[in-house]
């Protein structure tokens, strides 16, 4: 934290203004954020810290969205089922989806091959976006009216996957000409982006495991709280 403040101060000395800082989502980074004055607690969140060279300027703090996605993927796999106000998301639906893909069902969108052996394999960080993706949500949505036993009651899973996918698109935006949620934050896109962020905040505070333990109060909370901090920033 001291080195970061020093760096920002040196950049200010040569005319470069730092508006935001992004770090990975590790225990060390969380400690650094707290040392800077960032509060990650869901009940008392503070997403900015004081600029070391300007008493009137605050610097926003972000966690890298790819790391947050991996943490949520790991939490989902660990809990197997996540309860929230819109239903229940089940990891088993993804396992069954991979089994169907391996059978090469006709007229069904293919699932990325990196999801093979999903049940027993922890995906790498660059594969996590394929798990929380529109294509996977659409595949489950296609199966929903077919009344196949493994995919009954998968509405909650679809909703959960889409929400995480939308959050990732917002915070992984890299192109000023991007479309939809992948586009930049502008006056004309603010309403749509803000709607997703409000939905995430509303839903994340209700997430619980099968024992009704609140997830954002437990050990695997950082992925969810990290996205909430990014939303505040």
From TrEMBL:
<dbReference type="InterPro" id="IPR048366">
    <property type="entry name" value="TNP-like_GBD"/>
</dbReference>
<feature type="domain" description="Transposable element P transposase-like GTP-binding insertion">
    <location>
        <begin position="66"/>
        <end position="184"/>
    </location>
</feature>
<protein>
    <submittedName>
        <fullName>THAP domain containing 9</fullName>
    </submittedName>
</protein>
<dbReference type="Pfam" id="PF21788">
    <property type="entry name" value="TNP-like_GBD"/>
</dbReference>
């Amino acid at each position: 934290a001291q080195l970061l403040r020093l760096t920002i101060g040196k950049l200010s000395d040569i005319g470069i203004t730092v508006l935001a800082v992004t770090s990975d989502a590790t225990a060390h980074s969380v400690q650094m954020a707290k040392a800077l004055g960032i509060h990650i607690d869901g009940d008392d969140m503070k997403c900015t810290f004081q600029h070391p060279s300007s008493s009137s300027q605050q610097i926003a703090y972000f966690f890298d969205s790819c790391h947050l996605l991996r943490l949520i993927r790991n939490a989902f796999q660990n809990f197997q089922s996540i309860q929230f106000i819109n239903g229940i998301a089940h990891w088993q639906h993804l396992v069954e989806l991979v089994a169907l893909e391996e059978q090469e069902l006709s007229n069904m969108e293919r699932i990325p091959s990196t999801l093979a052996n999903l049940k027993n394999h922890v995906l790498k960080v660059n594969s996590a976006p394929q798990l929380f993706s529109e294509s996977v949500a659409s595949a489950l949505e296609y199966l929903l009216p077919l009344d196949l036993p493994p995919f009954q009651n998968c509405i909650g899973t679809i909703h959960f996957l889409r929400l995480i996918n939308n959050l990732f698109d917002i915070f992984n935006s890299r192109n000023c000409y991007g479309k939809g949620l992948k586009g930049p934050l502008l006056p004309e896109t603010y309403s749509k982006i803000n709607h997703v962020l409000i939905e995430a905040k509303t839903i994340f505070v209700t997430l619980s495991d099968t024992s009704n333990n609140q997830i954002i109060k437990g050990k695997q909370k950082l992925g969810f709280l990290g996205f909430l901090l990014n939303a505040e920033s």
